[in-house]
Structure formats: structure tokens, C-alpha cells
Amino acid sequence: MPQNRIDHITHEALNRFLSGPGLDPFFNRFTENLIYRLQSLGVGDQWTDMEDLWGLFKSKVTPAAIEAMCGSSLVSLTPSIADDLWAYDSAIPDLVKGLPRWWVPKSFVKRDHILQSIKKWHAFARTHFDESQIGSDGDWDPKFGSEFIRSRQRTFPKMDGMDDDAVAASDLGAIWATNTNAIPSTFWCTLECFSDPSLLSRVREEVGKCVVRTDTGKDRFDIKALGKNLLLQSIYAEALRLRIAAFIMRSPERENMKINEWILPKGEIVLIATTPAQMDEKMWSTGKANEYPLDRFWADRFLVYPGDPTSGPRKASYQETSKVQKGEEPRFSLDDLGGSWIPYGGGFRACPGRHFAKREILMTFAITVTLFDIEVDGSKALQTDPRANGLGAQRPKNQIPFRIRKRRTHYQQ
């Protein structure tokens, strides 16, 4: 039955929301929410010590994204929703293994807890939804949030077996997927920048070029300018290359697939790890004298400079010399990296949230480096949590102490 094509229906809805007509309203709401939450952080011109930089991103960026997607009701009904989401995220390594409840009870409790919050929100929103409260953008209302969520509420009840538990589980998946990779990636961009004063200076100069003054006298970042900025694009691409470790799932649908001496049987699930491709020393450039190994962040790795065949993301032996001739302008390049830079997967099943994720990462990064000075405690060796390996963006294993103060800037919000 057409109404039971769950995968097709949900995938098309995600595309409309995250890369189609729903993208701009969603992103604009996220930006407004984020600025409000960062400005209410409670830091002044003097240094303030804080326990964990990663915790700051989880507590401020996550609810901004959730409210932009799901409306203000979910956050007001469950003020701990951001903490609950990341508690659920910590349980994912247990849950994806299919372990029984009695073996990992705490992981199931974390999932049950956030599912109950989502069901509570659904029930409240269904009772109190008022179509007249839909905003002028035609997308957002305070109860359900976005047209994306409302459309699911209209569609899911028509599907066989799609009860309240299943609807809550599906929305949890959408909420989790929207946050789980973009927010850690933003954190890594920010950490790398504040750990390198020379890079921070360059970044602030570049983001300053992307500020426009509105008719109301306030400043805002032009997301199109941020998205075209060479240095910011390279930082974004490098953070994803270095910190995304995922398994891409594929299945030969029509016939057996042969790759070299291997046969992939029709209908079988194939897991493709992104890390070997994104850390392949035979393919990726490591600078003129190999001074930038692939396990080290290099902000300029994706920039091609005129007359320098060692610049750009690929080794010189793979570069087309016509692309790096003297007299040309530097440029950002993902040329010929379709099988090497794959943080979002590829093909028809590439992550539908990749366009929003890029905007979210660049905007959060730009706002943070503009509004704040941050000094990170570098006395502790930075490690990533091995439990997240294969699940997407890596998380830091331990807390990262830092201190923060508000910058004296001409940027007016």
C-alpha cells in the first residue's frame, strides 16, 4: 500500500525539510535561538572558568536546534531534553549491538526516558495545536515546531502499525540525527581554532568579511558568504575528514557485485568505513615537507594555491597541474574526492541533512569566535571516545576545562 512506504515517505520529507523549502526557515530559527542562548551564557569582560567546552556546545547548541525543529513546547515540557538526548547518544553503542535489556539496562532506561518525553510532547501538541499560530514563514508553530513535524503527524497515523510508540521512536531518530554529527563537528572546528592563535586571527578576519548590517541597525552573518569563504570551507572540510568515523551501509539490490576478487552477494548488507579513505596517505596531501600528517588538523588542507602543486587536498601526483597555475586565485577544492572525502556518504543515500549541517557548523563557529575569547586547558592530552568510533562524528573522551570572556567587538546583535 502506498501509505506504508515508510522509507520513501520519510526520506522525501527529510529532503524537503533539510535541503528544500523548509531549510531557510529552519536555519533562520536555529540562528536566532543560538544567538539568544549564547548571549544568555552569563559571561562578561572578565575571564570565567568553566568545566567542559564540549559540555557548553551540548547545552547551548542542542536546544537551539531542537526548538527550531520541534517548537518551544518540547523544550518547555522537558527542560532537560538536551541532556536527555546526549544521555541517549551515550547509550547508542550498546543499543546498536542488539544487546538484551537485562544486559545493558541503563542504556534502555535512557532511551525509554527520552521516548516518554517525546510522547508527552506529541500528546500536548495534538491537543493544543492551533493552525492560526503558524508563523508568517508558513513553517513554524510553537506546538509542533516545523511543517516537517506536522507532516509526520498527518502521515504516520495512515500507516499500518504506526502507533504512538513508533511515531515517538521515529521522531527521536530525526532529532538525534539532526544533532549527533553537526554539533560535535562544530565543537572540533572551534577547539582547533582557539588552540591556534594565528589561525584564530585569520578566522576572525575572514568571518568579519561576512557580516552585513540590517535595516534595524543589527549585524548578522550572511550564510552564503560564510559558505563561500575559502578558509572557513577548508576548516569545515578538514574537521569532517579528521573527526568523522562512520560506517556507510549499502546493499546490492539487483545482482551480486564484484569488487576486485570480492563478491558482494545480492541483498546482503555491506558496511563501508569512512576512516581508511579519509586517512589514506597515498591520496591525501600532507604539505610540502610532509609537515601536516593526516592525523593532525591542517586548516589549509583543502586550499589550492597558485603555482604550488603541493597545495590542495590531494598529493601532487594526483593533482592536475592546470588547476594550480600562477596568476590564478586560491580556491577551495573537493575535486576528485568523491571516494576519499565521504563524511556524509554518497549517491542518492547521502545524508539529507548535509546542507543544514554545513550551515549550522559555519554559523555557530562564526558566532562563537566573534562573541567570545576562549582559552583551553592544554595540560590534558585530548582523546576521543572509542565507543563512538564508527557512529559518525567523534566525541572527546574527557572533559575539556576552559575559560571564557565576552569579546569587545563592534558586532551588534
TrEMBL record:
Is RNA-binding given among the entry's keywords? no
What does the UniProt keyword field contain?
A: Heme, Iron, Metal-binding
InterPro entries named among the record's database cross-references: CYP450_sterol_14alpha_dmase (IPR050529), Cyt_P450 (IPR001128), Cyt_P450_E_grp-IV (IPR002403), Cyt_P450_sf (IPR036396)
Q: What cofactors does the UniProt entry give for this protein?
A: heme
What GO terms are given for molecular function? heme binding; iron ion binding; oxidoreductase activity, acting on paired donors, with incorporation or reduction of molecular oxygen; steroid hydroxylase activity
Region Disordered: list its residue ranges: 310-329
Gene3D superfamilies, sorted: Cytochrome P450 (1.10.630.10)
Superkingdom: Eukaryota
Annotated coiled-coil positions are none
UniProt-annotated binding residues for heme: C351
**What family does this chain come from, according to its entry?**
Belongs to the cytochrome P450 family.
Q: What is this protein called?
A: Cytochrome P450
